[in-house]
Amino acid sequence: MDLNGDGIINNQDRTNIGHFLPKFSYGFTIGGEYKNFDLTVFFQGVQGNEILNTNIYDLEGMTRLFNAGTAVLNRWSETNRDTDVPLARNTDPNGNSRLSDRYIEDGSYLRLKNLTLGYTIPTSLLD
Fold first, then answer.
1. pTM of this prediction?
2. Where are the domains of the chain?
3. Pseudo-torsion of CA 9, 101, 79, 75, nearest 10°?
4. What is the DSSP code string of 39-72?
5. CA distance 28 to 44
6. Looking at the predicted structure, is the pLDDT value of residue 27 above 80?
7. Which of 21-25, 31-35, 99-103, 114-118 has the lowest mean pLDDT?
8. 24, 32, 71, 85: which is deepest, by most CB within 10 A?
9. CB neighbours (10 Å) of residue 22?
């Protein structure tokens, strides 16, 4: 982005972007019993952080010496100007592969951390 409005995208347009620390972290447990079965589920998550996706940077940057991702099939060209994937070049005179907000993604998640299913054997069977 041309942050200073001079019509040129260069180092003067650099700024800090994203927040790697989440605004809040959370976790909760749900449990229950039915007859001799018991179930406990634990979820954990974070909200409000952004992360740098280096996988996209490597697979779409066009400056690495390994295979590219399929997204480069939608790269910029004279006939495909409506894309966010830069022009594919083996050199990078325009700096299209430099780090930018293009590689920043929402880091929020909710994850199932633990699921426990139990069964209590009746005492009448243990005697």
1. 0.68
2. 24-49+110-127, 50-106
3. 120
4. EEEEEEEEES-EEE-HHHHHHHSS-SSSPPPGGG
5. 7
6. yes
7. 99-103
8. 85
9. 16
Asked if 59 and 75 count as a contact pair (C-beta separation under 8 A), the reply is: no
Give the residues across from 77 on adjacent strands.
Answer: 80
**Residues 79 and 89: beta-carbon distance below 8 Å:** no
Handedness of CA 103, 74, 62, 88 (dihedral sign): negative
Q: Which residue has the higher pLDDT, 8 or 44?
A: 44
Q: What is the mean pLDDT of residues 23-49?
A: 97
SS3 letters for 5-23?
A: CCCCCCHHHCCCCCCCCCC
Half-sphere exposure of 20 (CA within 13 A, CB side): 4
CB burial string 25-43: b at 16+ within 10 A, e below: eeeeeeeeeeeeeeeeeee
| CB contact at 8 A, 40 and 30 | yes
CB-based contacts of 63, cutoff 8 Å, min separation 6: 90, 92, 97
